[in-house]
Amino acid sequence: MTRVQADPHRESHARHRVWPAYLGIFGFALAIRLVWLGHQPLWRDELFSILWSRFDSPFLIGEGTRIETNPPAHFLVLKAWIAIAGDSAWSVRLPSAVASAGAVAVQYAIGRRLLNRSTALLGAVLLAVSPLSVAMAHEARPYGAVELAAAFVMLGATGFLTAAYRPSRSSGALVGWAAVFVASCVVAFVLHYTVLFLIAAALIATGLALVCRRPLPRSALAIWIGTGALTAAVIAVPLISAMSLSQSANIAWIQPTTPRALLHFVGNVFLGLAAFPYRGEGVVAVFALAALGIVRRYGVSSPVFWALIVLPGTAFGLLAIMSLHRPLLVPRYAEWLCIPGTMALAAGLSAIPFDRLRKAAIGVAILGLTTALAIQLLRQDNEHWPGLVGAIAHEPACRGPIVFTDDTNPLAIIYFAPALLDRPFYRVSESTASTAERYLLERYATVTTLSPSQFTTASQGPATVISRRGEDGAYTLTLGSADYDRPFGDLLRLSCRNRSATGGVQNRTP
Questions:
Q1: Less crowded by CB within 10 Å, the N or C end of the chain?
Q2: 449: closest CA among 468, 432, 471?
Q3: What 3-state DSSP class applies to 406?
Q4: What is the rounded average pLDDT for all residues in the chain?
Q5: How far is residue 430's CA from residue 406's CA, in Å, rounded to a whole number?
Q6: Looking at residue 6, what is its pLDDT?
Q7: Which residue in 343, 272, 352, 273 sits closest to 308, CA to CA?
Q8: In whole angstroms, what is the distance from residue 250 CA to residue 27 CA?
């Protein structure tokens, strides 16, 4: 049989036609993520990111790493960006939106390596309108950048796997994809330590795929083993640091793992049909059907099966096992599972044998995701009251020390009402604040933590009590209703009281 020689001019022309597709996909995803980017006010974690990034760089990469559980890379980038663009809600969220849109473009590259152009485009569209992905892109946190880095980790692993499965495999191509994988792992890991589960899953799934390949690709397997060893050596130092911080109170608020929580987590994260804490049992069934479609069309020995079923399944399994020891199962910690999840859905939909049924199923999937995204954007999910805290400083009845409870965010005072920082601060709580947040508060103000009973007996004279739950007092102002004509609902009650505090402080962790 005569082998047809490839036309180098045609291949070069095809490569040049690819770039407009990538730019178009990136622009489409970015346009979606820019919708109402600054609409919702900054919430607790975003305020922490902004305020923590105000520390100088030596502190962030030195002492700060022993206080804050998250790696310093995000804070360093945010610090540099704020110096250029300011710290408004829109500007600090823009890097996350751009990075998340870049992940959608990389998703298209993953699909082209594993599947075909049309399925790759469908996977990119599904990720572009994924509510969970968009929700993380709307936060001034590291999750948007983690999504981009995780997409490159997936690209490196799938690129290596598809190159190793080719009969005429090239050692140069294998080494190149291995380099992409190692570099992406390092960047992802210094952005968020939980990406370690994806890195481990990629190493395990790709290694098993090579071992199960017949004939055994010995050279590719040797290169992959070396890739794993190099990755482990490079991330060893930050990994040891992360392990030393694993018992920090910064993540003590996460609820213990239960079988039902695992089920909800799978539905919410794998396909990103809705942002947490929506229920996702139906989504689990959809993903299972997509997996069956992949097995039916591509088989269990194909790179598609290993990259889109085994790899994310292994990552979730590792995360679930670790969460039984230290609860970690919240969708934002594994948002990167949306990447293989949406591509798996695209592959499963494309595997439907009947043309009309396939087109109908694809339309329903896109419509369902778009509808869920629209509902999410129209909802007021974030904490709206911090933006109103600035009004406290201008109230004539606001006197005495600042008293706040667990159901409020004292970081909002630092950001929105810095004029109040010269007053004494009392934190009425029965729990302990995270190490990093407590350190941050103490750098800006003098904070004393009291239990509700201690505060009741110790508090005398005028005080400004900030609580989401209104309490009787000499002066009560409700922010968020007709008093200020703000459509935020009854979310904050400010009590500026001229008598000693009474009990009944509501104690719940936000």
A1: N
A2: 432
A3: coil
A4: 76
A5: 9
A6: 44
A7: 343
A8: 36
> 162-190: per-residue pLDDT in tens?
999 988 778 889 999 999 999 999 999 99
Per-residue pLDDT tens digits for 441-493: 888 877 777 776 666 544 555 666 666 544 433 233 333 322 333 322 333 33
Question: What tokens were used for 155?
Answer: 């690209």
Q: Which helix (H) or strand (E) holds 424?
A: none
Please report, for residues 21, 56, 114, 123, 136, the alpha-carbon distance to residue 118 in angstroms, rounded to integers and kept in the order given.
12, 47, 12, 9, 26
The residue length of the chain stands at 510
| HSE-up (13 A, CA, CB side) for residue 58 | 0
Contacts of 216 (CB under 8 A, 6+ apart): 210
Residue 350 structure tokens: 């494309």
Question: Which own/partner contact pairs does 470-474 have at CB distance under 8 Å and 24+ positions apart?
Answer: 470/495, 471/495, 471/497, 471/502, 471/504, 472/502, 473/497, 473/498, 473/499, 474/397, 474/498, 474/499
Task: Select from 322, 324, 292 the least CA-distant residue to 305.
Answer: 292
Alpha helices in 235-280 (DSSP H): 236-244, 259-270
Could you give the percent of the chain with pLDDT greater than 70? 67
Tens-digit pLDDT profile for residues 36-77: 898 888 888 898 999 999 999 999 988 888 788 788 999 999
One DSSP character per residue, 126-185 reads HHHT-HHHHHHHTSSSTHHHHHHHHHHHHHHHHHHHHHHHSTT--HHHHHHHHHHHHHHH
- Summarised one tens digit per residue, pLDDT across range 426-455 is 777 766 566 787 788 888 877 777 776 666
- CA distances (Å), 318 to each of 195, 246, 301, 324, in order? 11, 16, 22, 10
Tokens read off for 76: 């360093």
* CA 445 – CA 342 distance, rounded (Å): 46
Distance CA 143, CA 73 (A): 12
- Higher model confidence: residue 82 or residue 393? 82
- Count other Cβ atoms within 10 Å, centred on residue 261: 17
Residue 258 makes CB contacts below 8 A (sequence gap 6+) with none
Q: How is residue 247 annotated by DSSP? A: T
Structure tokens at 278: 């929506």
